[in-house]
From TrEMBL:
GO terms for molecular function: DNA binding; DNA-binding transcription factor activity. SUPFAM superfamilies: Putative DNA-binding domain. Pfam families: MerR (PF00376), MerR-DNA-bind (PF09278). Keywords: DNA-binding, Transcription, Transcription regulation. It comes from Demequina lignilytica. PROSITE patterns: HTH_MERR_2. CDD domains: HTH_HMRTR. This is Heavy metal-responsive transcriptional regulator. Residues 1-69 form the HTH merR-type domain.
Length: 139
């Protein structure tokens, strides 16, 4: 199949296929007599793996490492599991950070609900945030 067909069947663009070739994720294909790239089902399987790995949150480098290991006949199960565990830990940390930010913003919103805007007379403080504001400087 030609590059356009491969890209279509793989759910990416031809430009993406050429990029994957340029960084070594996809092998350089055979060429037809007219110079067109010729891909086989193995290339399509590899392309779909890369696409699916990225959709699962793996980086191109991580997908490439798994492919390299497979190409060399190594088992990838433990390596893939470690990658997944690391990504899960990263997501858990992001969730915790977002929940902490949400709690802080919720607290500030409740505080704002109980403040009288008429009481906001100090030009150097924000009563909602409880913070001193920087002095206005003239440049």
């Amino acid at each position: 199949m030609k590059i356009g067909e491969l890209a279509e069947f793989g759910g990416v663009t031809a430009k993406t296929v050429r990029y994957y070739e340029s960084i070594g994720l996809m092998a350089a294909p055979q060429r037809r007599a007219n110079g067109y790239r010729e891909y086989d089902e193995e290339a399509l399987d590899r392309l779909r793996f890369i696409r699916d790995a990225q959709a699962s949150g793996l980086s191109l480098a991580e997908a490439g490492e798994i492919l390299r290991m497979k190409d060399e006949g190594e088992s990838t199960c433990a390596h893939s599991r470690a990658l997944i565990d690391r990504h899960l830990a990263d997501i858990d940390a992001q969730i915790a950070s977002l929940l902490a930010a949400k709690a802080e913003l919720t607290s500030l919103a409740r505080r704002a609900d109980h403040l009288d805007p008429a009481g906001c007379t100090d030009p150097h403080r924000c009563q909602v945030l409880g913070l001193d504001l920087p002095a206005h400087s003239k440049v």
